[in-house]
Structure to design on (90 residues):
């Protein structure tokens, strides 16, 4: 991530912010918003803009700490896929 800015705390306790990210040499911009926030167990964030997707964080207590599971689902723009393929070929 290049930067995160304009962070807002939402009524549900989560947050919303604008971001800039660099992927395969391309600059992408978007917004992330916590659409489900159940501390300290679960956060679901929706990302829109340069990359659309959803990130789910699940936190479970275990005997010696906690287990964190992250599930990402993204739709990567075609130009980024082309750049990634180009870097593999080179």
């Amino acid at each position: 991530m290049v930067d995160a800015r304009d962070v807002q705390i939402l009524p549900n306790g989560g947050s919303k912010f604008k971001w800039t990210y660099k992927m395969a040499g391309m600059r992408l911009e978007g917004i992330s918003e916590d659409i489900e926030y159940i501390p300290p167990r679960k956060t679901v964030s929706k990302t829109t803009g340069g990359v659309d997707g959803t990130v789910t964080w699940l936190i479970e207590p275990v005997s010696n700490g906690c287990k964190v599971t992250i599930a990402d689902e993204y739709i990567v723009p075609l130009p980024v896929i082309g750049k990634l393929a180009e870097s593999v070929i080179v």
About this structure: Helices lie at 78-89.
